[in-house]
């Protein structure tokens, strides 16, 4: 298990609220099978973005009911890196325990520490090593924990990690994970601009992967245009192979073929997308969340 105290935190957060929760967690629930890295296909980076739907005791679709389905889905797919949205602290801990040994996570509550929802990043420690990480808030004061200056319905933020990938020759890359506002188009648009500005300030020699629930339909919203206009590529469109398309938010109602993709995995040019999918897994009609996870199989450029 890596010791995040040895990982560089790029931006110093100020104030008492800077005692944020950013912890690696593991258990012994799952033993991953790692194939030989001599086969190029085996070195592909499996990425997932998943809005978890916050843990609730309200039936139907309580977290107690959904958690076993979530566990089975993650065990089936075994992503190397997983950007999650909306998870509460104990819920994030549950997922860490269910992923099992060989996994850790980085994140903090959007109101600081363990408060409010997380945009956590889970990763396979047998493959990926975090080199540096930090968080910023989607506001005019991005270093101020919990700031919300654009009239959004909720505090919104980004968690980012610079990883070293043992399977792709020690190649490093950035992973940014976010959840844009559900109510305010203005807040979403400002957030997209801030994210592109922050990406421009990263090491330009390294690939960037962005995961998130953008609360905006791909190809039909200025947020999408801003992010792709800054040079990011939609891995769904770029993929050599794709699953059937469904709307990624279903709200526990029947799935919508060819519906809106509001959950995306974006990347910088040079990252090869081999397959992209919208995962429709359920168990006895029960879904793990009110969103469907999206996935991409990538080779870093």
Task: Write out key terms for the chains shown.
alpha/beta; 26% strand; Deoxyribonuclease I, Chain A; 7-stranded mixed β-sheet; 301 residues
Order of helices and strands: EEHEHEEEEEHEHEHEEEE
The amount of helix comes to 10-25%
Write out the CATH superfamily name. Answer: Endonuclease/exonuclease/phosphatase
Mean of pLDDT: 90
Looking at the structure, the CATH topology is: Deoxyribonuclease I, Chain A
The CATH class assignment is: Alpha Beta
What Rg, in angstroms, do the CA atoms define?
Answer: 18 Å
Oligomer: single chain
**What class do helices, strands and sheet pairing give?**
alpha/beta
Counting DSSP H or I runs of 4 or more residues, the number of helices is: 5
Characterization of the model:
This protein is an alpha/beta fold and 301 residues long. The protein has one domain (42-299): Deoxyribonuclease I, Chain A (4-Layer Sandwich). It is 18% helix and 26% strand. It has helices at residues 63-77, 89-99, 185-200, 222-229, 235-238; strands at 8-9, 45-51, 81-85, 103-106, 121-124, 128-137, 157-165, 171-179, 208-213, 233-234, 241-242, 263-267, 272-278, 294-299. The strands form 2 sheets. The chain has a 7-stranded mixed beta sheet. Helix 1 (63-77) links the parallel strand 2 (45-51) and strand 3 (81-85). Helix 1 (63-77) packs parallel to helix 2 (89-99) and helix 3 packs parallel to helix 4 (222-229). The radius of gyration is 18 Å and the shape is globular. Residues 1-6 and 11-37 have low confidence and may be disordered.
């Amino acid at each position: 298990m890596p010791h995040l105290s040895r990982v560089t935190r790029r931006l110093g957060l100020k104030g008492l609220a800077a005692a944020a929760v950013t912890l690696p967690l593991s258990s012994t629930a799952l033993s991953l099978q790692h194939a030989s890295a001599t086969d190029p296909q085996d070195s592909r980076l499996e990425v997932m973005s998943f809005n978890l739907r916050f843990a609730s005791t309200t039936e139907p679709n309580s977290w107690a009911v959904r958690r076993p389905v979530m566990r089975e889905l993650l065990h089936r797919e075994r992503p190397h890196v997983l950007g999650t949205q909306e998870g509460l602290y104990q819920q994030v801990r549950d997922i860490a325990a269910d992923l099992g040994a060989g996994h850790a996570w980085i994140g903090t509550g959007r109101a600081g520490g363990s408060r409010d929802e997380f945009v956590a990043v889970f990763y396979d420690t047998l493959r990926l090593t975090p080199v540096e990480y930090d968080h910023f808030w989607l506001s005019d004061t991005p270093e101020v924990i919990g700031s919300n200056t654009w009239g959004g319905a909720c505090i919104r933020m980004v968690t980012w990690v610079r990883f070293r990938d043992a399977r792709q020759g020690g190649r490093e890359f950035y992973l940014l994970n976010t959840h844009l506002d559900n109510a305010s188009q203005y807040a979403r648009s400002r957030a997209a601009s801030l994210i592109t500005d922050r990406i421009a300030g990263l090491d330009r020699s390294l690939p960037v992967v962005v995961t998130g629930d953008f609360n905006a339909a791909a190809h039909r919203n200025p947020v999408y245009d801003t992010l792709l206009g800054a040079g990011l590529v939609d891995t769904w469109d770029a993929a050599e192979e794709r699953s059937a398309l469904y709307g990624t938010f279903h709200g526990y109602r029947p799935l919508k073929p060819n519906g809106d993709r509001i959950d995306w995995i974006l990347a910088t040019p040079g990252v090869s997308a081999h397959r992209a999918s919208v995962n429709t897994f359920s168990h006895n009609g029960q879904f793990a969340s009110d969103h469907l996870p999206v996935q991409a199989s990538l080779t870093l450029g």
